[in-house]
Amino acid sequence: IWRKNSGKDLSFTADGSHKDLQKVLVGGKTVNSKYYTVEEGTVVTLKAQFLQSLELQKHTLTLVFADGEAEGTFQVGAAADDSNYHSVSSLTHNSPLYLALYRKKGR
Asked: Kind of pairing, strands 21-26 and 58-65?
């Protein structure tokens, strides 16, 4: 759960090459690149400024690669007393087990 007003970023790790990442989607909508960073090892970090704009609910994050997609979910929750709490989630792009669950072709 990412908490409103925490001021913290939220990071996701995907098993794929950061060089092949084409775009980041939340709820099926493209996220402007000014609202996230991508590090080697395909660590995608959504910035707090962007997260703050999202509604209090579960959201789907989709990473679109040259050869497929990786998908996962995260929750945006109400502000809490413990504003330092945030989570790190993992997305798998190339693992055969997760490719069957998350990879979508034809885009």
From this structure: antiparallel
Instruction: Supply angle C-alpha 11, 16, 21, rounded to 5.
Output: 75
Distance CA 11, CA 88 (A): 5
C-alpha 98/C-alpha 89 separation (Å) is 14
Rounded to whole angstroms, the Cα distance separating 47 from 21 reads 17
Residue 91 pLDDT? 52
Note the pTM of the prediction, 2 decimals: 0.75
50-54: Cβ within 8 A, 24+ apart:
51/2, 51/9, 51/10, 51/76, 52/4, 52/5, 54/26
